[in-house]
Specification:
The complex is a heterodimer of chains A (141) and B (107). Helix content of chain A is 61%, strand content 0%. The longest helix of chain A is centred in the C-terminal third of the chain and has 17 residues. The model of chain A has no long low-confidence stretch (mean pLDDT 89). Chain A contains seven helices and no strands. In chain A, helix 3 packs parallel to helix 6 and helix 4 packs across helix 6. Chain A is mostly helical and 141 residues long. By secondary structure, chain B is mainly β. Helices cover 12% and strands 32% of the residues of chain B. Chain B is globular, with a radius of gyration of 14 Å. Chain B starts with a helix and ends with a strand. Classes of the chains: A mainly alpha (141), B mainly beta (107).
Chain lengths: 141, 107
């Protein structure tokens, strides 16, 4: 069981993801036109937004990233999804918080798992059980 | 899904509604779930720079909906028309749309 202090720290982290707007929002009764339009904006359309300078570096792919790439391509070859579905899921349906917070290939593998469940290739409980099994195997090492 | 691969590599040519040099305006449609048409070009007038190929449109393909093929165009905009504060008169920006997102300028 997660210790209660650990659980509290987890909730604090989750709360910190709330958008830094100076308006409390949760289940708004209505959104103004501009606010609605901003909410509907797809996260991958980044043009025109201000940003801080980013340090540019050449990062080599890690093994899990290459595995993710190949997994997603193979799912395409097998006709499970097309590249636009992956872009939609991976880049957009995640929403801003996950889109910005996940590693690049983290979005991909998240999207692949979601697609497998959505299209009934696996059940969500199968996925949950498998991930739990793999996790406990790693923790025993 | 079947058409996904077959569509690639077909050239569009004169089959589309617009030709190189035509003035077009990007339609200002609502964002719902998915699009690849950038917000900053909506309603802006540009010039057809190239008729590229025919392919599925993103809004269909993203949901694996076989809506048929459409002509794609590369459209050239003046940077000044996109960003008021842009400092150089002659600079341009090119991006690509399926026919669905374009209409003749001044229609």
């Amino acid at each position: 069981m997660t210790s209660r202090p650990e659980l509290r720290r987890q909730y604090d982290l989750i709360e910190s993801f709330q958008p830094a707007l100076h308006v409390a929002q949760n289940w708004n009764y209505e959104n103004s036109g501009p606010l609605y339009r901003a909410f509907m904006h797809p996260p991958h359309d980044v043009g025109g937004q201000h940003d801080v300078p980013v340090y540019y570096e050449e990062k080599e792919e890690e093994q899990w990233e290459l595995n993710t790439y190949v997994t997603c391509e193979v799912l395409g070859w097998r006709g499970v999804w097309n590249s636009e579905e992956r872009r939609r899921r991976a880049d957009n349906d995640l929403g801003y918080t996950l889109y910005l917070g996940m590693p690049y290939y983290g979005r991909w593998i998240w999207a692949a798992a979601r697609m497998m469940v959505d299209k009934k290739h696996i059940s969500l409980n199968e996925l949950i059980d498998k991930i739990a099994e793999v996790r406990s195997r790693y923790e025993k090492r | 899904m079947k058409k996904d691969k077959a569509a690639k590599g077909q050239s569009g040519g004169a089959r589309g509604r617009f030709k190189v040099g035509d003035r077009v305006q990007v339609r200002d449609m609502p964002n719902i779930f998915y699009t690849r048409t950038q917000n900053y070009v909506r309603g802006v007038v540009g010039t057809i720079a190239e008729c590229t190929y025919r392919d599925l449109i993103p809004e269909d393909e993203a949901f694996n909906f076989d809506g048929g093929l459409e002509q794609y165009y590369i459209v050239r905009f003046r940077q000044k028309d996109l960003w008021e504060e842009y400092p150089f008169e002659c600079d341009t920006l090119q991006t690509e749309f399926p026919e669905h997102w374009l209409e003749p300028a001044g229609h």
